[in-house]
Specification:
The protein is an alpha/beta fold. Among the domains are: 97 residues, Flavocytochrome C3, Chain A, domain 1, CATH 3.90.700.10; 153 residues, Up-down Bundle (Methane Monooxygenase Hydroxylase, Chain G, domain 1), CATH 1.20.58.100. It is built from 15 helices and 20 strands.
């Protein structure tokens, strides 16, 4: 099964890339590889909306969008990348509309726009409170119409490379647990973020464990800004289900158990999240109050929240307060890229997985879907350009054999340990030690615990030896990757001895101008990284800080 371009990830970035690569040249063979269900992505969960100034000639408003984005990034966003994204936004909305996305309209028939946190203007286009889902459905239909192939239930284990160039991907086929190779002239990684490492305290599905970030590290690529994890202010207390920012954008209040409003609901997410955390530290519960909105407004503009609150929390938001808590939601860190290009020839990255420096230290609400669409489109264009007049490269099967041996070992040996308990324990520890508030002791404790879990994870094996649709096998591999990525987050958080955006240190409360640059993490080349901790002999490997990257 040979394709010219393979896209790993079926969210908005991956689908925009696939459509762009395919529709520009119908002879090009393009395939999207998905770990699971096409409709199960963070893009589908991005409910509130997508930012855009609709008139491409309104330079004043576009400048405000650029400035709001740069301000939210706390000095770490790249102005050129931000300008590209914001200037491209009007054309993206037009393209999505042509693809079949039915954005809500105002009384004049124009696309309606709502306020979003951190924005100085109403620029968030939406489809009720199910924007991401509506966009995803339209993109999947469009991709199928233009002839994109979908290879579902394939778990990427590693990249296939030779002499510094991409030659394909190595995947685990879920239905029979066999290791397969998908050759390609170019590969686009668009696999989403890593907030799933905060299992039990995240809006993300548990399988958003940073698999492709770990794959990138093993391939010699660098990760950037890994310490910046955005905690969404409003998740359901019991289930962590996302209460979209649309609820506050439409006028919802945040109140404590004394009935007091304590923060500007439309401040940037880091500000609102810390304000809620402070209330909880004082022993108070926090709620979102929508009772002052009309029932018609709620049913029209917040239909998903209205239903979910009934089903998951037993709350009628027309008449009752909805209890909420902050939850890990989005990760600003990702694979280093120059727009979408990486240091590996033929490999492109886009969406939440990538770090092209448009979010910096804290993402502006409404910019995630925009980033995915804009840079997904660009990745498709660049990959198509790259493959022209190029041949397929050989596959290094020595690398593939190592993955086959790894899978066999996980099946062949026995274990008495519970991988699910480890994932839950990891999520709890990350939230408590590497969460909204951080300090050196907590981060050092987190690193030590990760070292312990790493030793345990490498002794995990499948209890069920059946190879057909074996859930245990994937979960064990995900856990190993989650630990690898968690370690990168902790080390970057230790290195950043200041508070900036989504990264808040109780022991370094102020922003330090000497840290107005990105921290880059990579695999060590010739020596172990030693800074805050002693060497652990049972660790498989260490990370190191390669450099600071300033803008």
């Amino acid at each position: 099964m040979i394709n010219d371009i393979i896209i790993v990830g079926s969210g908005i970035a991956g689908l925009m890339a696939a459509i762009e690569a395919k529709k520009s040249n119908r002879l090009t063979k393009v395939a999207v590889i998905s770990k699971g269900n096409l409709f199960k992505s963070n893009s589908s969960m991005a409910s509130g909306g997508i930012n855009a100034v609709l008139d491409p000639n309104n330079s004043a408003e576009i400048s405000r969008h650029i400035n709001d984005t740069l301000k939210a990034g706390y000095g770490l966003a790249d102005s050129d990348a931000v300008a590209y994204m914001c200037n491209r936004a009007p054309y993206i909305i037009k393209k999505l509309t042509e693809y079949g996305v039915e954005f809500d309209r105002d009384s004049s028939g124009n696309i309606a726009q709502r306020s979003f946190g951190g924005g100085s203007s109403k620029r968030t286009c939406y489809v009720g409170d199910k924007t991401g889902s509506a966009i995803m459905q339209a993109l999947i239909k469009k991709a199928k119409r233009v002839g994109v192939k979908f290879l579902v239930n394939n778990y990427i284990m590693n990249l296939a490379t030779i002499k510094g160039r991409i030659s394909g991907v190595v995947a685990l086929r879920r239905f029979d647990s066999s290791v397969v190779v998908y050759p390609a002239k170019a590969v686009i990684l668009a696999g989403g973020g890593y907030a799933g490492i905060y299992r039990g305290y995240s809006t993300n599905a548990p399988d958003y464990s940073g698999d492709l970030h770990a794959v990138a590290l093993r391939a010699g690529l660098k990760l950037q800004d890994m310490e910046f994890v955005q905690f969404h202010p409003t998740g359901f207390v019991r289930t962590s289900y996302l209460v979209s920012e649309a609820a506050r954008g439409e006028g919802g209040y945040l109140v404590n158990s004394d009935g007091e409003r304590f923060v500007d609901e439309l401040a940037s997410r880091d500000v609102v999240t810390r304000a809620i955390a402070k209330q909880m530290e004082l022993g108070k519960e926090v709620f979102i109050d929508l009772r002052h909105l009309s029932g018609e407004e709620i049913e029209k503009k917040l239909p998903s929240l209205y239903k979910s609150a009934h089903m998951q929390a037993g709350v009628d938001i027309k008449r009752e307060l909805l209890p909420i808590k902050p939850v890990a939601h989005y990760t600003m860190g990702g694979i280093c890229s120059d727009m979408t290009k990486t240091t590996l020839d033929g490999l492109f990255v886009c969406g939440e997985l990538a770090n092209c420096s448009v979010h910096g230290a804290n993402r502006l609400g409404g910019n995630s879907l925009l980033e995915g669409a804009v840079f997904g489109e660009l990745a498709g264009v660049e990959a198509l350009k790259f493959i022209q007049n190029r041949d397929f490269l050989p596959i290094d099967y020595n690398r593939v054999i190592k993955d086959i041996v790894l899978v066999d070992k996980i099946f062949d040996n026995e274990t008495s340990k519970n991988f699910n308990a480890m994932r839950i324990s990891l999520g709890k520890m990350m939230f408590e030690k590497v969460g909204i508030n951080r300090d050196e002791k907590g981060l050092q404790d987190a690193y030590s615990y990760l070292a312990y879990l790493r030793g345990e994870a490498y002794s995990l094996h499948c209890v069920n030896k059946e190879r057909t649709n074996n859930v245990e096998l994937i979960s064990i591999l995900e856990l190993r990757n989650a630990l690898e990525v968690s370690e990168a987050v902790v080390l970057a958080a230790l290195k950043r001895e200041e508070s900036r955006g989504a990264h808040y240190r109780d022991d370094f409360k102020k922003t330090d101008n000497s840290f107005a640059k990105s921290i880059i993490v990579r695999e060590p080349i010739s020596h172990y990284f030693k800074l805050y901790f002693k060497e652990n002999t049972f660790m498989a490997k260490f990370r190191e800080f390669f450099a600071y990257r300033a803008y």
